[in-house]
Amino acid sequence: MRTALYLPVALLGTIACGTIASPGGGDLNLPTANVGPFTPLSQAEVAAGDVPPFVFLQEAAAYREPSAVAASDDASSPAVILYAVATGASGNVIVRTRADDGRSFYGDSVDQQSNASHRPPVVLKASQAWEGGSVSGPSALRVGSEVWLYYAAAGGIGLAKSNDGGMTFQALPQPVLAPDHGVGWEFTPPRAPSVAVFPDGSFHMLYASGDAIGEAVSASGDGGWQRVGGAPVLTASPRVDPSTLPEGAPPPFDEGAVDDPLLVPSVDVAGRLVVRVLYTGYAAPIGASSRPSAIGVAARFDASGVFTKQSSPVYSAQSGEAAPALLQFGGDQALLYVQQLNSALDMAHPFFAIAAAYAPASSMLGAPGAFPSSP
Amino acid sequence: MARRLFPCALGAAAIFLASSNAAANPLDPFGFGSRETAMGGAVSADVSDFSASYYNPAGLAKAHGFELSIGYFRADHFLYMNGKDNGVDPVKGMVGGAVVPGKIFDFPFAIGVGFHVPDDRLTRVRALPQAQPRWEMYDNRNQRLWFGVDAAISPLPWLQLGGGVTFMAATIATLDISGDVDILNPYQSSLRHQVNADLTLVAYPDFGARIELSKAIAMALVYRGQFKLDLNVNANVDAGAAVGPASSSGAGSDLTRLRIALATDTIDSFLPQQVVLGWSWKLSDDLKTNLDVTWVNWSAYIPPVTKLQTNLNIPPPKGGWPAGIKPPTPPAPVSIIPIQIEDRIVPHLGAEWRAIARSTWQGFLRGGYEYDKSPIGAQTGATNYVDRDRHAFSAGVGLRLLHPATVLPGDVRFDVHGQLSVLPTGTTVKQDPSDLIGSYTAGGHIWNVGATATVGF
Questions:
Q1: What pLDDT, in 10s, does the model give residues B6-16?
Q2: Looking at this predicted complex, what is its ipTM?
Q3: What is the DSSP string of B297-357?
Q4: How far is B276 from chain A (nearest CA, A)?
Q5: Is B120 exposed, middle or buried (0-12, 13-18, 19+ CB in 10 A)?
Q6: Any chain A CB within 8 A of the CB of B329?
Q7: A52 in Cβ contact with A317 (< 8 Å)
Q8: Which of B137, B436, B439 to mutate to test the interface with A (most CBs of A within 10 A)?
Q9: What value, to the nearest 5°, has the Cα angle with vertex A293 and ends A249 and B330?
Q10: What is the SS3 string spanning B116-154?
Q11: Whole-prediction pTM value?
């Protein structure tokens, strides 16, 4: 009888003592809008020799204002082609690079240490009078078999086309969106374009001007761009008196200006068109001596209209981050590329380079791959 | 025999109590004991074995002899969001207990103990951001050890009363971090940490009554108390901040010192109080049907979202911060959004048919159904407490050997069960287009199988 009583108790104790917890599950494949929040890449996620989160760095070129397009038809692949602004001998140019793993970019300074010939090729430089000697703000888009590259210059927003997979581009002779002095809020020429094709086949462009972001639409994408309404679709958040904020709550991160839109349209599981935009938010207005920045997200449900913002940024490094580019892959993964000040080499003289961050924040990328042999 | 066993039962109960066993609620969705699970949990007026510790402690007073039970169940989740499996951990482990009847002042009296011991982890604590999607009812709440001790008496032939307590462990922990931080390259930092954690007991009561209205009809009333598990974690960081690898920076080269105090307070698991009203109808000698109706006070639910308090003290170095270095700022306080959740009435239906009756053995077929309408409101805002209505269909068979051996004067029972919970897929539609999760579909099913053996003496 005593044995019958104590046996289960002993059995229980054995089970309890032998219990070794495995990692808890329940957070696999969680739904996400796939626009952040993003975590900067760590040392284990970038190429050996790179200083995280920087993935495309060359001090003299000061790479910035990236634009990303998928390099593979495989939606699960992180292979990416990146166009970025570089400082050239006579004005800013646009270069091209590629990373099969989304992180190890051809022509990165670490790549060049072992492959001196790996220099990112210039795919676009100013060649027309309206451009004013410099190009910036690339926005690459696959259209059929071509790659279209929208860009900004002194006289507005231009378009260059490539029929060789985005290696060489031929610019149109005139800007596709020129300054319009009749639009009150546009007190600078339009810049930083981002173009996407909506499900109805129309081309939509977000662009920055002054301290706000506007929208234009076109049926063909290479002409006939019309501004939407007379007001911006995204503006800086109204200034908030800090004394009115709850204890510890920060003021809006984009009280000064919004810039560098990145248009990301999609259709959600409820069948609604969701138009999201990643953008740079500045805490201080244009011209301020110090302008802390962060990457924010806003969205709307319809093809037109103003955007609703998320109050918190999706990426913040307090290092001059701006000009987001995005590669979505694998259904629920995304790599964010931004220009960011790198002060690791010379703290007194930081320079811009391309940094990368990853979402979902609950997981990490695997080990990086090799640098590609061509751009 | 029973009287001699009574002191042994008290001793067994003392062993369990002294070992600080915990208790929780995997039994709510997955049942306790194969017979009871097969009958959809509709047994509050029809239970007298170890599982009475959970379903209705008053039923213990109907026990005829000392019984020992042991079993095992495993519930595997196949829960999906946007068509992808979320990998919710299975709930699995041993179940069992003992019933020791006796008499006090000639009134039938019994002590019962019951347990569920997970075989993967004894308990799991988890605090997630309120925006992170999670299967609120299945992800973390059921990863618990459960233990209950109850006593029952029958002061009148038609009345049984019972009650007891169950126990749970709360967690208080402190995390201390010290060392050196390279503020330009955090990966070169050298930090040490120390964790101290205490588990403290939380107990909640349960009471039950069973009334025999006739030889064929009985009814029951059960109350299960509310409990909540606190998870308090305090973290203290005291580190020198330097430029360059930590190994090259002594205390003298520190730019400044980082002092961060962080305190979190989380309700890691909350079990709402419940009231069960049950009936059992014996339609014939071979067939009985049961109905339980459970009121669950979900409106008192506290979701496991962390309240965070941060105190950041980083004085600037002499001469100010170097160019390119910006001191960190404390995280913005989390504004906890109240969960929309409502009380629910949960019906349980069950039936048991003695299909075979021989002089030495009997065979039983059982079936049951339970409908849990989700108490959680539509997650159209920033929170993502994912849940769906649950239809639980169950079935089982039982074998009772009547007095199989002289050393086993009681019965020996073998019961098995299978339960399929279906959570119909529905779409959660967000109102805010900038929501970082977006709209999603969620649904799935859960398979629960198990077996229990009981030996009567």
A1: 344 433 333 33
A2: 0.89
A3: -GGG------EEEEEEE-PPPTT-PPTT-----PPPPP-PPPP-B--EEEEEEEEEEEEEE
A4: 30
A5: middle
A6: yes
A7: no
A8: B436
A9: 30
A10: EEECCCCECCCCCCCCCCEECCCCCCCCECEEEEEEEEE
A11: 0.86
